[in-house]
Queue: 3 jobs
Job 1
Amino acid sequence: MASDDEDECGYFYDDEDADEDGVAAFEDDAAPPPERRADYTGFRGGGIGAGIAADRLCGLRIFVCTPNPSSFQIRKGGRCYAGSAAITQESLYTAQKQDLSTVMNLLNIKQHQARALLIHHRWKIDGICDCFDRKGRERMLRDAGIVLQENNSLASGGSRIPVGSAKCNVCFEELPLNSVSTMDCGHCFCNDCWTEHFNTSVKSGKKQIQCMEVKCPAICDEGTVRCLLFGKYPEMAKRFDRFLLESYLEDNDSVKWCPSAPHCGRAIRVGAGERYCEVECPCGFSFCFNCAAQAHSPCPCIIWDKWNAKNTDSENIKWILNNTKSCPKCFKPIEKDGGCNLVRCKCGQYLCYLCGGPTGQEHTWSSIAGHSCNRFKEETAGKSLDTKRQQLQRYTHYCDRFKIHGGSYKVEMEKMGPAVAQRVRLLESDLNLPFAMRDGDWLTRAHRRLLVSRQVLSRSYAFAFYMFGGELRTRPADQATLGVAKNLFEDQQERLEHHVEHLSKVLNAGAPAVHQVENLSKVPVAHVPAMPEAEVVRMKQETVTLAKTVETLCGEMYKCIQDELLPLLVEPMSIAAYRPDGPDKAKELAA
Ligand SMILES: [Zn+2]
Ligand SMILES: [Zn+2]
Ligand SMILES: [Zn+2]
Ligand SMILES: [Zn+2]
Ligand SMILES: [Zn+2]
Ligand SMILES: [Zn+2]
Ligand SMILES: [Zn+2]
């Protein structure tokens, strides 16, 4: 940190240089030469900043900064996802410095001015770019309360540029130039008065300290604040630095704390313009960037919140516990051990675990004549039931499916996961297979698709419960459209459900059995039977096709929700885009 402080003090002395330039300019009655300006920028930002500018704004806009700071050439291109980053206490400084450097280089302004502008725009660089487009550099800076030295009236008029000595307008002392400080606005006061002003401001929690002159909007130079405070109130200087760092987390719409509990100590920064997105912190926690709840797409934040509130309602849970699945033939309670939802009772009866209805033993779902149970049928609720009970029955329909797919996810993650990993290792090391076939990526990918689509399915029931339950206000004129969209959605959900079960079964057959995996450490790899080449070819073909289908169906469901269903609601809602591999993995930012 010591070297950083020195660095900041460097800016401070540099500002004094700039003042001298100002005097020189006044005497010569000419603007500083452009080359001088270009050097100045180079000194501040360095090559790294320019690289970051290109990186963060990749494709969005490319600024080419010419030696003359007032002329920018802007090229527009398509937007691209910059990727998310995980920020720790150690890398917070770096993260903030990146954004500061970007803006300092883009606009050729000083660090405290860049910070004021960024705080004004809640650290959204794309917001600054838009604003730049609309207003131009001068007006954008003025609107954010930033006073530039190069065009402040006092400095250019020269009326109060101190020569030799200066009088402080607070304590009315006449002091030598090395005991006074001038801010961007040209207002000059003695260092003692400034120090007390900074001390009071930091004490009251301010990170953007304004000039002492009445009604002057200029933000004081950070380097000056730090250096003066450090001399008399070192604790306050430290607190000021902490405020500045924390602003990056508190005033920043692109950064949020990872909501993991216990807290992992990281904050996540997402790419420009991403609000409805899901990210995975390096600690393993996946969350919705908009509402900071656990990832929940394709269910919108508001619905997810309602669903969770309802789910913890003890009355409902009691009712559901009393209504667990029992065999349609022998009526004994059924326990499920795998992820698959075609279950066989001890008595030999096959049933669909989702609805409890009897089915044939054929697993290929399409061959079970007319078996379809993802829709809630109002008529089956029966006329004799009172409304409350009917509502509960409707809720149970959705809640059951939500929980069962969630349970399948857990099994497919915890038990099938290691089995799939083992099969991948076998495939990659099987010397009996032709070299080109010693690859298990397709299997890993398919398993990931399965996990993601299980969650999509599970959450789709939470969404459907509210979307079609009449509880959310829909546009009255769109009732017919809602009916059509509901059918489309339920068809998609049904197809997705069938193919997910199918994929689950194929993967389960291809990976070693669960009990073998549990004591894998004791079983040498050679003892687990290898797959004959023909079998690998067949399984790969089936798996890849199914995984592709599942991916397409998930994508279609997200599209249906975002484009067909959500626009029918009075309250606007949005969902994160579908990502076949799950939430974007935030990369740890180097300190
Ligand atoms: Zn004074
Ligand atoms: Zn001022
Ligand atoms: Zn975390
Ligand atoms: Zn959310
Ligand atoms: Zn039975
Ligand atoms: Zn069923
Ligand atoms: Zn299928």
Job 2
Amino acid sequence: MGQFLSSCSKPARRILPHKTEGDIADSSSDLAQPQTPLDGLPVLKKAKGHYWYPSDGPRILDACGGAGVACLGHGRRDITKAITTQMEAYAYASYAHFKTAPVDELSDWLIKSTGGKMQKVYLMCSGSEAIEAALKLTIEYFLWKGQPARTNFISRHDSYHGTTLGSLSVSGHFARREPFRPFLNQAHFHHIPACNPYRQQQQNHHHPPTNADAAAKEYLALKTAELEAAFARLGPHTVAAVVLEPLVGAALGCVPAVPGYLAAVKAICARHGALLIFDEVMCGMGRTGSLHAWQSEEEDAVVVAPDLQAVAKGFAGGYQPASALLVGEKVVRVMEEERKKREEEEGPWGGGGKGFTFTHGHTYQNHPVVAAAALAVQRAVEREGLLGNVRVQGQLLGRLLKERLGAHPHVGDVRGKGLFWGVEFVKDKVTKEPFEPGLGVAERVQKVAVRGFRVLVYHGQGCAGGGRGDHIMIMPAYTISGRLVAEIVDRVAGAVEEVFRGL
Ligand SMILES: Cc1ncc(COP(=O)(O)O)c(C=O)c1O
């Protein structure tokens, strides 16, 4: 059928050049047989609510919404109605020729949702596009600000920000970078260690577990020192931006930043005049219990707004391919000043004409049907009070996962927030040694879960660094009930137990 596996939706273990035949262990298992792309996947007939219905076999409980996308569940008539209504009016209009009501309404709604901290919206179709746009806008911002020396980006190891060459350059995901390494920009993109306390805090503090506060402080100091050192090494005046996910999704398996980390990073960026870019492609738009991950609803949480923010996945919940770049007040101000200056010098068409003067564009930018879908999804999340449900059911999900799996000898860590939870598997719980990548442990769990327990989870590799480490992610729709949360945990735990009995 000519379809290829996506490197984002499947680990690359069968195609990576650095893997040998010997890495693919257990040749007696059908999980280890070389497969052609899409072999063995069920054919989908329909999806409704929290279930996928394959053309043969019983329905599958959806515990991950694809890659954390289907935030409203499947088959919502109100959303498809909003889409078809828009399509009947007009299905497409170029952003260069028309303003459209759905795009205007969505932009206004998004800006309001940030309390005005973000002031412009750039609507696109994928997370990679949003990150690519963030990188290019940063470059142009500093040109206009008269600081052309700011050409360096700092991001983190074991991160994923997209599949295009720019967004992959800023990513620190070992396996996804590996085949393209010579083509990635290593001159301007620099990586520092992630903020991953499960894997880093133990080695780096000298306090017994009883003195958790001192250990946390010491860990935070280590993280800020790493970032400061990167600024110092590159020359603070050359750093354009720091790029990070406030809660790391697929690359690490739902790892929240430690308290104080985001504020510390923002303070360092501000002190050195660099921008802060949040990649909320996966963790944003309600997934962690607040609409934007930086607007934590927890008591005493410090709100850390970025200068640029990418959103996608839960933005339109999979009803259309939607992403956006949200542009903060500081950046907009400089761009507006630049536009005025050009107009004064060159007349009203100077610098590309009216409004926002970013030298960037996509044919499907500001697509009216995409906007109508995103608006309908976001209005439903708001109207139905679903963020509250994300927080309540998220607490239940975390508690049940820890109760059922926390003591398992091969479960190293259960972490997350809202309806965004990861389970990391280890060979040895004490040393945290990961499994050999060739065993494909997370993939086995995913396959046993779907085939034997009829529940779909999202799996990934690389959470222990250097392409090692296995995790699964549980990210049900925001409409999930407590009964279904319990059922998801039951089925997932059954699959985990079965996989490790057989290993
Ligand atoms: C955090 C993050 N950023 C960017 C991307 C890229 O998004 P897309 O696959 O829509 O291009 C992803 C995709 O998984 C992601 O998880």
Job 3
Amino acid sequence: MSQSSLFSRRGALMTALALPLSAGLGAGSSLPAIASNARQAGGANGLVAYYTRTGNTRVIARQISRALGTDIFEIRTVDPYPEDYEEQVAVAEKQRVSGFEPPLAATVPDIRSYETVFLGFPIWGMTAPAMIRSFLSRHDLSGKTLVPFITHGGYGIGQSLKVLADHAPAARLIEGFSKQCDQERETLEEVTRWLGRIEMPG
Ligand SMILES: Cc1cc2nc3c(=O)[nH]c(=O)nc-3n(C[C@H](O)[C@H](O)[C@H](O)COP(=O)(O)O)c2cc1C
């Protein structure tokens, strides 16, 4: 199923795509559940690593980092993703299907010094985006606590926890945070409709 059809048939698919979630990581689960554990594990020993395309995940990343006093690392790919949304969806889908792990622009200096890694990303195509697989392949998280924080456009966290478990099998994956956020597609469509309505001078 293409991402386009997924999004245009949102209502019908909400039920069909209600995939099993790990305890406590359903849409709208709350940060306080992890905060008491996380506070102890944060500070100098904690790292917040995140990827964002449209900024939703960055808001959460910065809040975790500020609240716990951790370092923060933005995951970037060598090759930028397309600016055009439809092209972006196609690239993401291709990378999901092929299992391609795009090269990262940088890796975390001395990942060994962190005991806890908060890993944030948006859901793409019902799972974690490809650069998250790259990140986990390039950083040894064995023995570390891995805390996911995930944003999505309304369909939940899909298969993303399995990706984390598969790519960081020796990390201790604990309860994370997920939140439904704005979808780029909907925002673009609203703006386009509005631009079609207004009368431009001259
Ligand atoms: C290529 C692509 C695929 C997406 N696929 C899904 C999806 O399968 N399910 C979903 O709920 N949201 C999906 N979204 C919406 C994003 O997960 C959501 O808007 C997220 O909050 C974006 O985070 P960011 O602003 O940090 O990039 C997709 C967005 C993009 C760009």
